[in-house]
Amino acid sequence: MFGSRAERWSCATAILTAQEARQETAVKRRAHTAHSEGGSMLSRRTVLQGAVAATSLPIIAGMAWAPPSAQPAAIALDHPSLYRVLFDQRFAPARAFGNDARWRGMSVQAFAGDVTHVWFHDLYPRWKQGRAAVAGLTTHGVLFCLEQLARDARMRVVHQSEHRYPGHETLYSWVLA
């Protein structure tokens, strides 16, 4: 009835191409008219494209100039004043995250799936004295538990990123502050 999928696709592509050509011709006609009248026409589209390009430049440049050893999870380590960095030693990417933090001179604490010992013997006594920022690369369960416990110290998650590693459970880098 409507032909094969390839024929429908070809027809749809031709229609879109014709619409784009008409729009481009209309834009050129308006620009030519404005130019011939002695004024320069600045469209809303041109302004928005320039604004997006200008604001994107630092982001693009930062990605291009980032050192190759910079891992996405390591962004959590950029917080200015971390009391402790936690990682789940069952996962190789988390161990690498912990080693990176240790190399940067941060106080690092490893655990194997259960964060209870770290909570009772380190975080709870410290958070009773006042807020202290903590970063980590853990599973979602650990992040959820620490997020709930941090509320008592009037702290919250200020950074969270999901990281999928082949052959591993999904890990999350985060900062509680």
Explain what this protein looks like in three dimensions.
The protein is an alpha/beta fold and 177 residues long. The chain folds into two domains: 5-64; 72-176, D-Maltodextrin-Binding Protein, domain 2, CATH 3.40.190. Helix content is 51%, strand content 17%. A five-stranded mixed β-sheet has the order 2-1-3-5-4, with helices on both faces. The longest helix has 32 residues, at 5-36. The N and C termini lie far apart (62 Å).
**CATH topological fold name of the largest domain:** D-Maltodextrin-Binding Protein, domain 2
- The succession of helices and strands, N to C, reads HHEHEHEHEE
The CATH class label of the largest domain is Alpha Beta
Q: What is the distance, rounded to the nearest whole angstrom, between the alpha carbons of the first and last residues?
A: 62 Å
Structural category is: alpha/beta
What is the name of the CATH architecture of the largest domain? 3-Layer(aba) Sandwich
Unreliably modeled segments: 63-70
Radius of gyration: 26 Å
Morphology? elongated
Number of helices: 5
Strand content: 15-25%
Mean pLDDT, to the nearest integer, reads 79
Physical arrangement of strands within the biggest beta sheet: 2-1-3-5-4
| Structural domains: how many | 2
Q: Main sheet?
A: 5 strands, mixed
Count of β-strands: 5
